[in-house]
Amino acid sequence: MSEKEIKNLEEIFDQRIARDEKIEPKDWMPEKYRKTHIRQISQHAHSEIVGMLPEGNWISRAPSMRRKVALLAKVQDEAGHGLYLYSACETLGISRDELYDQLHTGKAKYSSIFNYPTITWADIGAIGWLVDGAAIINQVPLCSTSYGPYARAMVRVCKEESFHQRQGYEIMMTLAKGTPEQKAMAQDALDRWWWPALMMLGPTDAESVHTEQSMKWKLKRKTNDELRQQFIDQTVPQADLIGLTIPDANLKWNEETNHYDFGEIDWDEFWQVVKGHGPCNKERLSARVNAWEEGKWVRDAAMAYAKKEEDKKLKKAI
Amino acid sequence: MFLIKANFTMKNENKVQYIFGIADNALILGQRLSELCGHGPNLETDIAMTNMALDLLGQTRSYYQYAAQLTEGEKTEDDIAFLRTERQYKNVLLVEQPNRHFGYVITRQFFYDVFHLLFLRELENSTDSTLAAIAKKGIKEVSYHQRFSSDWMKRLGDGTKESHEKVQEAVDDLWRFTDELFHMTADDTLAVEHHIGIDVKTLKDRYYQIVSEILEEATLKVPETKWFQKGGKQGIHSEHMGYLLSDLQYMQRTYPNMKW
């Protein structure tokens, strides 16, 4: 294809995006669009399956049968999200094995928040409330993103995430109105998860390298800082309602801006975790790699068996 | 007239013990399966195994809620699940065996599923309408479990040399726990006399027939050993059980008398 032809196609493509048309797998798309989407969708898929680990950590120790079943179902939902996000990503011409390989070798990233440990039951509440809460803010705009398979997957993901968020908040509420020990457990979890949750919405706009292009492709509708502000404005009253305190001495309602002012985020910590040196980066990655490597003989067996069955059918047909 | 009727009613405390004998299997196997959530050999299998864990824990809740009712407010579902001593859990030894590798997980599941389905198909006819209803709902779920575990027995048995060896190792090792499924406890006998429970001895031949057929189809050897282990039904468990319970009971033991 000549440069001119490509330029033409790009123009048509840009117009389609501007008209809010969905781009489908078989449609022509610029290589950069394809690559950016593979990066973002797979990062999202990886976050879902790595995210299963910190929460899975509490399934066997959940405090009641009702909570145990709810948590198990929640973690299973994350696996489901991973599954359809990987499928959406595969429509861009990359295999699931390749995607796993990128995760296992550290080439692909996943949400940094999952590199923090879940050390008490209240962490399960805090993750649902804050982490899923921040995820929803990030993800709702993606339901109308330009790439069709991703947008459709996100509609389903968002529905389930908002259920998870309510469930997490309800855990926190129960703890907050429980015994002094339970309330302290909830406050401690909020203290530890608040700042990482704010970091989850990404580096400040000045530092964010992908924002501009992503906005153009409707892969992003608001900047990181806007999303962060929205998250804070929405979450502070929720904490007030159940009598928990946001661990930020500088948090204050600003009558002029109609938003909360908040304190400095420790970006050094953010970059440390992103670069692989958070409290649980090594544990999370090795848990995924172990599951994959230990499962190899199982997957091989399934392939070999399927082939034998196929051969049997063929023989019968002949 | 009243006296005669009283003789024919199973005492609540015995019925509760009978329910533990059924439900504890579902709890402990559900607990074992849920340990694997997030660590499966691929996403699809992970999701399927979590489904089975959810089914089993859901069944557990129905049984325990019924048992709690029979204690007339003395115990709750969670007291029953989390606050008994090890000796008071009545599950068979098979279900508490650890997840050594996927071959063990599938074989343990398969050995239990075949029994479980036969059992529920009888329990469905119990004169106790609550137990019959729980069984009826469970049959749908457990039919799927048995299909899943049987299919995997075949894949592993007739897959690669490595998978064949691994699953045969699990079959040989776990076989010794199958006989206990057919032991009658005193509460089982009482429940049969009152047309509430199942005489599990009558399921034995059919069980080994089904298991052998599938093993054969999976190109696996049916173990010949005649040495079997027992004890779970009397609350005498393997050394694995204490660790499983430490996990299961951790919150309720550390923070007693709280609402979650």
TrEMBL record, chain A:
GO terms for cellular component: cytosol. GO terms for molecular function: phenylacetyl-CoA 1,2-epoxidase activity. Gene3D superfamilies: 1.20.1260.10. Pfam families: PaaA_PaaC (PF05138). GO terms for biological process: phenylacetate catabolic process. This is AAA family ATPase. It comes from the Bacteria. It comes from Aquimarina aggregata.
